Each structure stands twice: as structure tokens, then as C-alpha cells.
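Hey, can you fold this?
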Amino acid sequence: MASQQEDLEHSSSRQVEAIAEKIRAGKTALGVELGSTRIKAVLIDDTYATIAAGVFEWENHLENGLWTYSLEEVWHGLQTAYASMAYDVENAYGEKLTRVGSMGISGMQHGYLALDANGQLLVPFRTWRNTNTHDAHEKLSKLFQYNIPERWSIAHLYQAILNREPHVPKVASLTTLAGYVHWKLTGNKVVGVCDASGMFPIDQDTKYYEKDLLAKFSAIPEVAAQPWHIENLLPTPLVAGRDAGRLTAEGAQLLDPTGTLQAGIRLVPPEGDGGTGMVATNSVRVRTGNVSAGTSIFAMVVLGRKLKHPRPEIDLTVTPVGDLVGQSHGNNFTSDLNAWVGLFSQFAHAAGFKVDMGTLYGTLFRAAIGDQADADAGGLLNYCFYSGEFLANLEEGRPVFARGPEAHMNLANFMRAQLFSAFAPVKIGMDVMIREEHVQVDSLVGHGGIFATPRVAQKILAAAFNTPIKVMSTAAEGGAWGMAVLADYLWHRDVALADYLDERVFAGAASTTENPDPRDVAGFERFFTRFMKGLTIEKAAIDAIPLEENHEDATQTE
């Protein structure tokens, strides 16, 4: 027995030393992603295993009716996540992290980050969650004959022009959140081509912005009156595998104020969370796709051709190497669900039970597919709209739970309605893509923390889309891991990205596939019909409930 224990200890010691040697030799890649609810730093080795990670939790907030994060939060969060990851390295392997082999920054796509000639932010960062750009969306989509979603940077810029916002003439550059951080770390104003495709349409041949659409935008009278030209504002798009600069001394200090991290590290093009989701699910080939679920949700399919007609329900973006992608994007997904789980946690605490959040989520999720759950969620309805939702024609959102007096109210149906409602908006766009545009899909891969509980979200998504859903062993790794993989691709760019992922990263990766259950499919369709009919409830809630309430003042008044 003692001998076996000694053998295990020696084996563990050898593994630790082997990883420590990789860290010293720079056989690592660092991915950092600024997601909607957390900033995460992930360090991988040359086998693509995560060897250290750090996380900073954060939330967007409303400022003058617009969703935003402050730049102070950005840097505090980045430094905290990096410091936690670096501590992991030193604690587990006895090495101070002075360098990595390569690194990359990823972030939530779209939105409006406008800087003046001195690099100063002109207005608070307007995130993808804002849907105040409907006029710009409609006018640009008609002019371009190309769907320009409300979230896109160009829609935000044009809406600011239409609103005659005083900062507009001062704009010297536009970028994404990942592009901004990358610029501060390297001095280079570039973005990955997938991230760029959420700013302005990308030409499939040149992997650059569509020149004719740039010209059309510039010719709009109110745009032509500005002292700048749109092409000079946008960052340069780069495909995956390109060298996008080196970490400067100032950048190293920004990321690691302790001074331990050394300058000179190579960075790859900063990417959006859509691109890192494609990489993390091995979905960059034509006819593959993925569903990335977090604070928002998007279902993406790599297209073999352009769509027959512009479709407002389908965004056209590209993969990290510039291939066309059809995307159904929902602004809302887990925020409402997390709030309800938080309520159950408070109840458990009040009742004297100690339940960790992982156990709580697992217990509640499993109830949704248990024996007590009706196929259609028992007549319950839920609207998870914290913010506006283009797919549902909503400029604002209010979370709403509703039921009729004869509805079958139990825990199983409540949780099933929560999960059904979270997937319902993105189904609108997917139905258009598959049923009307006849897009061919060989495989769809689920990705995100919601798939960490085995089978549940996978089974419900299979019902929603009526298609098999694969979940890989890396599903919960997240976009930061996908960004680290893209950082490593810098050293393998002589191989096509799809082949690199197949042959190196995912060779032998374990996965499970959930096929659609006919009972679940029929139940989801009944729920979905109620969901669409009941949108009048959501619209009434928007009219009746103020977007921002000062609860403290209200309490004092009472």
C-alpha cells in the first residue's frame, strides 16, 4: 500500500515538474476573454490542457439608459483575472510567470467604443446589449441590401450621427473591447477578422471590409458632412495565425502591475467571443455550427454560400479565417435564469441548508427533464428579457414569468419553462436559416457553462432545433480557452485552421450526442407557439415597468 502511494506521489511530482519545464521554456499559450459576466484568463500547455486559470466576475450596468462597463472596471478585472492565474502557476508549479509562448485577447463583440485623437473614450462604452439603434439598422440594411444588426458598431455610429450627438465629429477611431485592450497592450489598432465582421461587413475574397459598402456609407449626406472617413476609423482586420504585435513594456505593466511579466510576448489578432466559440467547439468548417450560450446566445453555421436574400433574423459574420457564417443571435439568455437560481439559493440559506451553487444548478436543471415535467412545461410562460431583443421585436426588456390558473405549476415545469424560454428567441433565426434558406448543417455543438450539467440543456436544445446536439469534453472550457488555442495557432499557421483543430487540438476528444426526442420536440413547439402569442404580455410589461427604478428612494418615500 505504501509503495503504491509513493508511486502516485512520484508520478504526480514528475507531472508537475514536466509542466514547470514547459512554463520555463515558454511552451504555453495565454487566452484572456472579457465576457459579459466574467473576465477569464486561461493558460494552456502544448497539449491544449488548461494548466492555470483566473476569473473576475463583473456585470454591465445602466447609465443614462444604456448598458455599459467602465474602462476602470476593464483594467481592474483584467489585472485581477491575470493575477489569479499567475498565482495558480506559482502555487501549483513553483514558477513565477515571466513569459508565455504567445497570447491573445478576446471580448464580447459589437457595441460602440469611440476614441478621440488622443485615444480617450468619447462616450461610455455601449455594449452589444443596447438596442437603441433601430433606425440605423433599418436604414443601413436597406441601403446596403445586407443585414446590419442593431448591435453592430457601424449601426451605433450611424445612430449617433442621426441623433446629432456632439461627440461624433471628434471620433478618430472605433474598435471593439478586445481591439481596445490589444491596442493598449501592443500599440496596434487591429482586430481579428471575426471581430471585425461585427463592426462592418467583410468581403469574402479580400478578408477586408466591403469596399463598395464603405463607399455607400461615406456617400450618405450626414456622414459625408463629418470631418473623418469611415475607413480611417476602423481597425485593420487580420485572419487567424497572423502576428499582431508584441507586448510592450507599458502593456506588460497594465496587465501585471507587479512587473513580473516581461515585454516582448507575441500576440495574435484579438477576436470576438463568436470566433473563440467556433474554435472551442471545432466549428470552423463549412456545414458545421455551434450554439454558444452565456449571458447572450448565438447559434452559428458556417455557410457554403451566401443567403438568397438579406434576412433580418440572420446576422452574417465570418470565422477567424474569414469564411461566411450565418448567425441567429439572442441578446438574452442566462441573466434571468441566474436570478431565479439565486432566489432558490437564498431560500436554502434561510431554511438552514448549505448548498453549493454547482449542486443547486444541477438539481434544478435535472428537474426540467425529470418525470414530473410536462412536455410543454405545463402551460407556464417565461420571458428572460433583461434587455431588448431584436428577434422578438423588442427595443427594451423586462423579465416576466406568467401562467394561467389551470397551468401545471411545479418545480419541474418551472425550470423547464426557464430553459425553454432561454432557447426560444434564437430558434426564430435558426428556423429561418434551416427551413427557409435551406442551410445544410452536418453537426451542431453546444458550448458554454449551461452544458456543464450533463444532458439537460443539450436535450432541450435538441428539442428546440429538432437536430442532434453534440457536447464535447471541452464544452465548459469557454472562450478564453478558445483564445489560447488561437494564440497557439500562431506557431502552426502553415496548416489550415480547420485541419489544425481536427488533427492537433481535438484529436481523440471525448463527446456526447443527444438526439431529439419526439415528445420533447412536440412539447417545445407547443411552448414556442404560446411564447410567440404571449409576447403581448412582455410588451405590456415594458410599458408598465420603468427601465430604471431607485429602490432606495422608493423605500424612503414609503
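Oh, and this one too while you're at it.
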Amino acid sequence: MGSLIRVKQRRAGVLVSLPSIVSEHSFECGDIYSLYPLCDWARDIGFSIIQLLPLNDTGYGYSPYSAISAFAIDPLYISLYKLGLPNQSRKKEIRTLHNHPNRIRNEKIKCIREYYDSHQKAALKEAVDFLDKQPWCYSYGTFRVLYETYEGKNWWEWPKEFQNPLAAKDFIFSERREEVMFWVYLQKIAYDQLSAVKVHLEDKGIYLKGDMPILTARNSCDVWEHPEYFYMDLQAGAPPDHFSQSGQTWGFPVLNWDVLQKNHYSWWKDRLTYLEHFFHLYRIDHVIGMYRIWAIPREDKTALKGWFHPQFGIETSEFLKAGIDPKSMEAKGLIHEFKPNHYIFYWDFWKEESYQSLPEETKTKLFPLSQLHITEEEKHWREAGEAILEIFESFSSMVPCAEDLGSVPSFIRDSLFERQMIGIDVVRWTRSFATGEYIDEDHYRENAISVLSTHDTSLVMDWWKNEGDLESNLQFFFDRVGKPRPESENQILEGLLEFVFQTKSIFCIQLFQDLALGVPDVLQNPEKHRINYPGTPDHSNWTYRFPILIEEFASDFQRNFTLRKLVHSSGRN
């Protein structure tokens, strides 16, 4: 079933935040077992893709994009029910829209610990076998024990001897072997449960799509073990745009592709090989970062002093040739020497007071320098990004899908188009470059996934009520196709779903909450059902829980009938 030919046809699917979909057999939040009833429902509707947000271990944090391991699955997702453990949630119905991941994880670990202790011999043997097959568990297990010991403190604040991974592994595996093997055992169970889901879904004709964050938390096992794979003095982010005047700083160290290349990209190869045990397709988070990334000094609080990395920069000799002393421009805060005798210009440097007050003849000499190497840099970035994506495709038979949202420079857009990478089109942002109007169904990119919302946006009903221009939305989504104007929230949502299913995009994958026809709270208070607000503190996000058990949701005849009809008439079933 794994062949790409089979996957690449017109399909519909659903995207879920796994902890949000609680099943009758879940322990307080959604887990790997939840995928079984979800699969039955998806199949009944005619969906053939289930997409998940990353499942990586987040430690004491909440965001799956800021995990403490690029490999390990969060123990939060282990199904106690699948393990045959009788522990039930304390309450039979869902009372609040929020999980408490740390509390739930600790409770689960406690239950599994008792089970492990009572089956010590067999369980230990399973863990040892798994460790042999998955050597990344040596460093992850060690890191996890120390992370617990020092209560989530950054690894660079640990005692000196544990900042050295080799010494730390030796110590932990000899002095605290029992403890570390338990963490390996948790990974073994998670592996078994998730890989079994993949097989089950294949039998039902459904593909599972995973998510691969491109960046890694600074306080993670991977950065601790391989600091050479990263520029530790830089952090990744995004330049200023109309959403954010000062840009975004993400805190993640910037990847050092030169070192990764010398190592034949073995870290990426291992990651992709591991993901392939679970998924048929995967989302490459922030694909633009494979070509170039906005790099900012680690200590900066805004992204204003960043640059596109890797950059050639303007050499001292090129400034002198133009009759400008680069040091004097650096003193004015317009440029920055990011490596000896190589300077970058700051974003929007020409808006600075110190630039405006320069003599006109100096400006005339200075400004062209900022544009000096753009053409060759874009050529270099394009070649570098394509080489990386080429390598990725050689490492696995999973179908890659690129997250190419935001302002994507035309050279990257052209590159992705030529590579036939599947991109993503969010309906509210998919407009004509020429007129700014929405584009109709037939003009969507074929090689893309059309969606109404993402985990980082408001739900489509929130957008409709509070963000979009109501009159032009009504004209486009209803009047234009001869549909009567909607009189209820349900009719609005159904109209939007009908549009997105009819688009030309090869895949159409909707956020679970955007499929909640007939669920009053989701329709009336969509803002309460959002997964993440980018740029706000980690712990205020990622705890969302859907208000109805998945089994109950799946048994609603009317909703299923409507969705089945939409999927069928769009030729996606």
C-alpha cells in the first residue's frame, strides 16, 4: 500500500490534535487508542487521510513544536487501555475544554510504572531489545533522567559532568540503570502502539500523516548531544511583516547545514527513518527554512537585527571600494559584522533615523550595497534547499507535504512548484495576486492541501464572525454559486466546507473542530475551541479538549450524512 502513486489522488481527510479527542477508553485526554474510533468514523465519511500534530515528548512544556527530543513520543499518548490497564478517567463526561498534560502524564507514568515493576523481567528484556534497535534511546533515556532530576532546568545549567553526553550516558546507564530503562520501556510501548495503528489504518484504506518540526528546542536531548549541528549563538525567527512589526523570535538554535552535510545528514536520516514506522505522509514544518532562515542573535528580544542565513554578506573591501567605512555604518546601527570582514544590512535599515540623516551622496553609495549579492544568494539558497529536500526524499518513502504559508519569496515558490511538492492553501488567504479577491475552486493549485483553518489560526467560524468581511464573504461563498444566504451557523459552516471540498487541490484536510456541524458550542463560541495562539506563552496553548467523546461524535447520523455527501460530490471518497 505504501506506493506514492496510490497516495497521490484526490482525497479528503481530518487533522486532529491527538490529546483533544477523548475516547471512552482514554485516560482524561486523547491518546493513541483514540485513533481507532476516529479511523472508523473517517472511513464511514469517506475520508482517507488522518493528520496529526507532532507527537514528540514535550517534557514540562506544552508545545509539540518545542519538544525535548526529535525522536521520542510523549508518554502522554500511551493508551493504558491498549496495555490492558484498568485505570479509568475520574469523570465519565467531559467537563472542561482543557487538559492538564503534566498531571495526566504523571498519572499515566505512575500506572505504567506499577505494571513495569510487576512484570520486571519481561519488561526489562523488551526495553533492552528496543534499545539495541533504536540507539537514539541511549541519549534520550539519559537526558530524560537528568531532565527529571533537575526538574526541567536547561541542560547547560546542569553540573559540568552531565553537560558531557558521553560521560553522562556512562554514569546514568551504570548508576541509575533501573530508572533509565523505564524511560526506554515507555518509548517501546509508544512505538508498538503507534506502529500498530499504522497497520490498522492501512487495512482500512486510510493513510496516516505525521508532522516533522524543522527546529529543535535549545533545551533538548538533540542539542545537548550534538551542539555542533546548531549555531548556538543564534536563534531562528521570522522577519517583520504586516502581522508583526518587530518580527518573531522563536528561541530555537539555527541549524548548521554544513556540519549536517559533512555527516551525510545522518541525524535527519535517523529522524525520517523513525517517523516512517508510523506515517505514510509527513508535513515539513516551515519548509522555507530548508532554503534559508531568519537568524537573530540569541540574546535579542525582537527579530529586527536578524538576517537571512546563510548569507554571503558584503565584504569590507566592497564598502571601501564604494568610499564608505563599514565601521562608521555599524556604529550607526545600520549594518552588522556577522563574521570577520563580512557585514549584513539590518531589515528596513533605510527607515532608521540614522540612515535618513546621512548626506544624499552617502545614501546613494550605501543603498546599492544592500542589494549587491541578492541574485547570487537566491541562486545559492535555491540550490541548497533543493539539495536538502532531494536528500529527504531519498531517506524515506513517505510523501512529503510542505508547510509553505506566510510570505514565500518567488524563487522558493518556483522551486517547490518545479519539485512538485504538495503545499498548503488556507482558504481565507488564498487570493488573486492581481486583484486581492478570493479565487474560485477551479483556480486552486492542484498540488496542494486546501484547508479552512490550521492549528495556528482561529477556527473558520471565528474568522467568519469576527475577522472576515461579511458582505464579500456572503457574495463569494453563497451568492456566486447560487446558494441561498445562510440563516444559521450550521449553514455557514456547511457552505464553507462545500467550497473547500470542491477546490482543485489534490488533498482537502480539515481541522476536526471545523467539521463540528451540529455541535452548538463550537459553532457559537469558536474562539474557545482554538488550539494555539502563536506568540503567546506556551502554557496558555496546546491544552484544548473537544467537548464530546469521539464515539458520541461519530454516532451523529445527520452530521455523517452531510459530510459523506460533501466528500462524495467532490470526488474525494
